Amino acid sequence: METENPFTKSKLTKLKVKRKQKKKKKSLRKKADLAHESESSNQTNSNDTKETQAYISQMSPLEKKIYEIAIEELKTSFNIEKSIGFLKWKQEQ
Predict the structure, then answer these.
(1) With contact defined as beta carbons under 8 Å apart, do 40 and 76 qualify?
(2) For residue 6, is it within any domain?
(3) Average pLDDT across the chain, whole number
(4) Is the pLDDT of residue 2 over 70?
(5) Domain assignment present for 40
(6) Do 59 and 68 touch, CB atoms closer than 8 A?
(7) How many C-beta atoms lie closer than 10 Å to residue 55's C-beta?
(8) Fewer CB atoms < 10 Å away: N or C end of the chain?
């Protein structure tokens, strides 16, 4: 007498469908998170004061790239007005 396999074809199909649904949900969440991050970085840039805008406009291309990376990586914990470069620039002004 053969024992019944707990993983019949229909059960395997259901598992595959569930896995695909989970992957799809994950990818949608990632896309939503990325969209939210880009919105928040844009908001950070739009809230800059005239002083910080002047500082950013005088940056070299390399400094601007570093600034963008800092915003991207540090998100809301980055404050340009507390950065060393900004403070030095402000003292020179």
Answers:
(1) yes
(2) no
(3) 80
(4) no
(5) yes
(6) no
(7) 21
(8) N
Q: Could you report the per-residue pLDDT of 56-85, keeping only the tens digit for each?
A: 999 999 999 999 999 999 988 999 999 999
Closest CA to 40 of 82, 83, 71: 71
Look up the domain containing 65 and give its range: 12-92
The angle at the Cα of 67, spanning 55 to 78, to the nearest 5 degrees, equals 95
Complete DSSP assignment for 23-81? HHHHHHHHHHHHHHHHHHHHHHHHT--HHHHHHHHTS-HHHHHHHHHHHHHHGGG--GG
Q: What is the pTM of this model?
A: 0.48
% residues pLDDT > 90 (the chain): 37
* Number of structural domains in the chain: 1
Residues 58 and 93: their CA atoms lie apart, in Å, by 12
Whether 1 is in a domain gets the answer: no
pLDDT at res. 28: 80
- The answer to whether residues 52 and 81 touch, using CB atoms and an 8 Å cutoff, is yes
